[in-house]
Amino acid sequence: MVSFDSKDLSTGKLHGYLLSAVAPRPIAFASTVDVDGNPNLSPFSFFNVFSANPPILVFSPARRVRNNTVKHTLENVEATMEVVINVVNYDLVHQASLSSTEYEKGINEFDKAGLTMLKSDIVKPFRVAESPIQLECKVKEIIKLGTEGGAGNLVICEVVKLHISKEVLDDNEMIDQEKLDLVARAGGDHYSRAKSGFFKVPKPLRTMGIGIDAMPEAIKNSMIFTGNDLGMLGNIEAFPTDEAIADFVKSVGEHHADIKEMTHREKHKMARNYLSYGDVDSAWKLLLS
Amino acid sequence: MVSFDSKDLSTGKLHGYLLSAVAPRPIAFASTVDVDGNPNLSPFSFFNVFSANPPILVFSPARRVRNNTVKHTLENVEATMEVVINVVNYDLVHQASLSSTEYEKGINEFDKAGLTMLKSDIVKPFRVAESPIQLECKVKEIIKLGTEGGAGNLVICEVVKLHISKEVLDDNEMIDQEKLDLVARAGGDHYSRAKSGFFKVPKPLRTMGIGIDAMPEAIKNSMIFTGNDLGMLGNIEAFPTDEAIADFVKSVGEHHADIKEMTHREKHKMARNYLSYGDVDSAWKLLLS
């Protein structure tokens, strides 16, 4: 381990570490207008959802580390307390990146990035027609976190209207994550295309897993199982019954050598195989046979 | 487009839409202690970095949509104003998921998830030894966003100490995103492994791209170019000079049929080929030849 007190690091270095450590970050493609109605558009990855009731998104147009100037987006939300947050999918990446160029005040990034302004229903800022989800927001509060370069500004937004492209909805009118094809920011120049890395973990919330502490020592301390293997094994509600184990041994016996003669090591390896298919039940029956 | 007023949606439905729309979300594996020092550990994906100076992370242990109860993590940070935020990499996913089980107060999720408690330097909560980056934080403020089920609570944390595993550092002591191998949450049961979806986009900040509005009509309105293609083409500072174009035509002429006789369509297709390799310079020289 390398350890640093935050106060001993330069803002630039700390900025770099935090942006690599907290990732991948979703992107708010924020559309605002100034007091005269001139549009502005810029992406922000200091962004997330934080509440469903009320529906709250927060993004942070930070003061620039380099010269302590602020972004037009911040000036605009301070003046109008309105923003449309559009999501960024894979097809929009280069245009979103282009719009983050520091064009002068008054330059319309919709034009620069070749994107289409769509009138909103409730707020003044325009929606990005090319974005598959557009969220009209009223700004509730802006919290300044500091006054120096690198200081963030929490823009606390309440979503008042959602627009979702039919192309990303499934038959139940829910959002299909594969069709949506979102991208996120990570450290350095890295972007991450979410769906390339999709995998599923069954939700543990309703069941009460036995936990790794409740496992036999030989399993808990196995040299074969990884932390992920143990995590899967710990997420069962109860050990299988003796009867279920006996049935399992009988059914496997038809295809496999005598389980009773397997060593711990052999059983753990075979159990890992079951786990790799998500078959936690068979893994446990084998381990306890 | 399907459009909804937020107030017309149930909290459950709105929650589902927002969690799918704002993704992938980084994960805070939050370690806290109660007033008696009993440890608690739970993952949260309403989380991000928002400022480098001061270094601020925000996460939200929301009131449960289902029964409007609050999480032990929230009670603990309210009581002690301290937390260690550990990052979650691919090797930790199942253990992090297991620790999100709603065990009773007083149950130590470090034990349940088979994770190792590591003493912190500045704050009382323990670090997760298995996590490659551990961030000791003082809580500056907790902002309650509502009182009903689904209401978030912004826990505003200042990072006071960073611990980074040497295994994820490169030769310059910067964090290597591939080695770090972070995961994030998306809608439904989806997780996303960031590095599976990594790609790079050159940062546009220091240059001032000509923008898509400055391009010849035939290119801007091409049926061949996607938005991403135009975004890349718009991110040059200036068109290539006549001399550079003439040199390009000469050099390509040695390997290729006469460029002068190509149609717009043929040029656009060949330019797309250059763009697919990130060669924006050659794409422009071809297009303007």
Automatic annotation (TrEMBL), chains A, B:
It comes from the Bacteria. It holds the Pfam family Flavin_Reduct. Keywords: Flavoprotein, FMN. Residues 20-173 form the Flavin reductase like domain. SMART domains: Flavin_Reduct (SM00903). Its cofactor is FMN. Belongs to the flavoredoxin family. This is Flavin reductase family protein. It comes from Gelidibacter pelagius.
